Structures are given as C-alpha cells and as structure tokens.
Amino acid sequence: MSNVSQKKAVILVSGGLDSATTLAIAKSQGYACYALSFDYGQRSLSEINAAKRVTAHFDVIEHKFINLDLRAIGGSALTDDGINVPTEGVAQDIPVTYVPARNTVFLSLALGWAEVLGATDIFIGVNAVDYSGYPDCRPDFIQAFTQLANVATKAGVEGQQFHIHTPLINLTKGQIIEQGLKLGMDYSLTVSCYQATDEGLACGICDSCRLRKQGFEQADIVDPTRYQM
Amino acid sequence: MSNVSQKKAVILVSGGLDSATTLAIAKSQGYACYALSFDYGQRSLSEINAAKRVTAHFDVIEHKFINLDLRAIGGSALTDDGINVPTEGVAQDIPVTYVPARNTVFLSLALGWAEVLGATDIFIGVNAVDYSGYPDCRPDFIQAFTQLANVATKAGVEGQQFHIHTPLINLTKGQIIEQGLKLGMDYSLTVSCYQATDEGLACGICDSCRLRKQGFEQADIVDPTRYQM
Q1: Distance, CA of B212 to CA of B199 (rounded, Å)
Q2: What's the mean pLDDT when you consider all of chain A?
C-alpha cells in the first residue's frame, strides 16, 4: 500500500520481461507505482493480459491503459499486418519491428500523466545491450527526452526536474533476469514474443524470443516461457 | 495535386486559426501536405469538423485522424469536464487549459508518421506572442524536440535531419491573420473556441476566443467567427 510520504513514479509496462523487471525495481526503490500501458494495435492480446498480470503481482496504485492505435501510422511489422516479423535471427541493422517514434510517443504520454499526478519520476525498461538496435532505446535518446521534458511542461518551467529512470539500460538480458528474480519477479507472468498467440504462447523464433531465451541461458535459469512448439 | 518531386511534410491541423494558417504556409512553400489531426476527447466536435473543412479547402494529399483519448490522463480544462474553462480574460500564469505534454504527444505522433512517409519536415502552428503561456509553444521546446527527433528515429540515426517548422512562432495574431488571408485562407472555416458548440458557435469569452478576436482587431479585418451571443 502507498502512504503519503511515498514519491510517485510512472512506470511504462508492456507485459514483457524488461518492463516487468523495471516495475520490480521501481517498487523496490520505494516508489508509489503508477503503471501505464498502451493498447496500440499489437499483434496479440497476450501482451495486454501479461501487463495486467504483472501489475497485479506488484500491487501498483493504479494501472492505466491508453488506447492509441499506432496501426493508423503503420510502418512496422508490429503495427502493420502486411510486414512479417523476422524469424531468421537478430541482425545488425535496425529491424522492421522498429515502430517509428514509439518510445517518444509512450514517454510523452507518461510525461503527461506524471505531470497530472505531480510526479517527476518515470521508469522505462529500455536496454542497449541485448536489444534489437532500436534508436529509442539508447542513452542519447533518454538524455534528449529528459531535456525535452524539462522545457515541455508546466512543472519543468516551474523548476522541477524530470528524471527518466532506465535501470536496465546497461544490463545484459541475463543480468536483468537475475535482478528481477531477486526482487520477486515471476517471469511466467510475462510475454515477450512479437507474435504470441492470444493465449500467450511464444513463437520462439522472433528477435524478442531469441533475446529472452538467451537471457535465461546467460542467467542459467530454467526458462518459464510457454512456447508454441 | 502532388507530383513525385515535391517534398512531403506533416502538418498538425487542429481546426483552429493558427494551424489552418500554418497549413496555408506549408502549401505555399510547395510541400506535399499530409495533415494530422487528433480526436483527443475535446469538449466539442466542432474542432474536428473545422479541421476537415480546412484540409479540404487546401487539398491536402492525406488527412489522418488519430484517436487518442487524453481524457484518460485529464489534468486540463480541455480534457476534464470537472475543470471549467476560464472566461475572465487572459492571465499571466499558465492557465488550466494547459494540457500536460500535449504538443510533445502530438509532435511525437507527427514524427512517427513523418518517418513512415519518408518525410523530415513537420509543421506546427505554435505561437509565442499572442498566446496563453503554454510551455510547449516556445522556441526552447521546439529546439529540444528537434534534438530529440534526430536521436529518437531510424531516419535520424541514419543521418537525416528533422525540421520542425514553426512559421507563426514570432507573429502577432493580427500578423498571422494577414498572412493567412494573403494565402487564400477563409477563416470562417476555422473554430478556435475552447468550448464551441458542436455546430461551431464560439463562446466569445474564453482565452482562445479573446486572442482570436484581438487578432482580427489588430489586422483590421471583419471577424467571421460565429458567436453564440
């Protein structure tokens, strides 16, 4: 339960492994946690169901869902059915699963909600080690967004400083899993797959599945993911 | 009509006087114009109808509407029915019509669409002269967003430079109106009022109405706005 002296934070929660661990970390740091998720036209409902399980597990103050159909923009395998999710292995280039400006959009809405709540702390589970090369997962992006937040808002203009927390940014997937387990995370609640079934069964071969699998191997932990095959 | 050599631009169009003039300017500069509007839970449908009239008037290539219910966040007289729109005159402080992070959210989605279109030009009708003191209408904000855009996107990482055009930022409301009229704008198509009726009748006393009225007086132009009283 929260108490009045607790600092509030907004945590972006997708239902995947990284954001679930980020929520666990925010909680362990004593924040009153306000979880924010998006229904953005993902390929699978399982992501949203996973987000609900994760926030229930950690007993957040509030879990808000915002409907924002990024399919209206398209341009990604995750938001356009005409573009296939790659399953051949993680490549060096920015892959077609990149959703244009996604983290900018998500952080903007987190910023808006934070300002309404009177919070200046926002947590996002970006990772620049075992990741898919998305530009909006890198420290440069987070730094630029922080600068923006402080000039974009009434709170910023009035002298408050926003802090975008990225506790996973320099961790390997294995280290992320180890840290989450120490904090009571149950990874069977999470779904990382880009094309999971609505029941939450993972494909095992998309980039996100491969990075997740590799993480459990790195951490030498039994992988609780339910695969389709 | 567009042709293949035209540069594409995304223009944020709300249906108000400023964004309509901004579209007129983008068009006059030879851009292939892609208009972007939001249904964000505004108090009145008239804003959306006005946006449709304005983009039809200027024959844009595409006019996209994104549903994004900012009422989920609230915190503003424009997105929370429990907060009244002030009608006592434009004050010095940032007013309760400020929508937390609104222009950050809108520009983020414009950025995403621009990237999908292969465009690097985005137009927004912010104004820092005859305005309501919103932090996300100032040059500092635009500069910070531009820096963000260039690190947040695949296009930016690949060396393209985004340009956020703010042709109105240093103009008075009167100058904006004069410029629009020269470019064929018909301001009777636009609705600026924060609490217009669904038929587009303006209240005449909210800050937005007051600034608009003052603009027509400055420009010595007959005000075509339809008022409720």
Answers
A1: 18
A2: 93
User: Which residue in chain B is spatially nearest to A117 when comparing CA positions?
Assistant: B75
Distance CA B117, CA B90 (A): 39
Tell me which chain B residues have a C-beta less than 8 angstroms from the C-beta of A138.
Answer: 151
pLDDT tens-digit profile of B82-99?
A: 889 999 888 878 889 888
The whole-number pLDDT of residue B229 equals 72
Nearest CA in chain B to A75: B116
Say whether B73 and A99 touch across the interface (CB within 8 A): no
Write the CA distances from A164 to A22, B43, B110, B198, B208, integer angstroms.
Answer: 12, 32, 22, 40, 33
Within 8 A of B98 by CB-CB distance, chain A residues are 154
Mapping DSSP onto H, E and C, the string for A25-75 reads HHHHCCCEEEEEEEECCCCCCHHHHHHHHHHHHCCCCEEEEEEECHHHCCC
- Interface predicted TM-score (ipTM) over 0.90: yes
Residue type, B109: L
For residue B24, what pLDDT is reported? 98
pLDDT tens profile A36-91: 999 987 767 899 999 999 999 999 999 999 999 888 888 898 888 888 999 988 88
Whole-model pTM above 0.90?
A: yes
Sort out which chain B residues have CB atoms less than 8 A from A145's CB and list them.
148, 152
Chain-chain contact of A148 with B145 (C-beta, under 8 angstroms): yes
DSSP letters of chain A? ---TTSPEEEEE--SSHHHHHHHHHHHHTT-EEEEEEEE---S-THHHHHHHHHHHHTT-SEEEEEEB-GGGT--STTT-TTSPPP-S---SSPPTT--TTHHHHHHHHHHHHHHHHT--EEE----SSSS---GGGSHHHHHHHHHHHHHHSHHHHTT---EEE-TTTT--HHHHHHHHHHTT--GGG----TT--TT--B-S-SHHHHHHHHHHHHHT------B--
Chain B residues at the A interface, defined by Cβ less than 8 Å, are 64-70, 72-75, 94, 98-105, 108-109, 111-113, 115-116, 135-136, 138, 140-141, 144-145, 147-149, 151-154, 156-157
3-state secondary structure of B11: strand
Residue given tokens 């925010």 in the structure block: A26
Determine, for residues B94 and A157 on separate chains, whether the beta-carbon distance falls below 8 Å.
Answer: yes
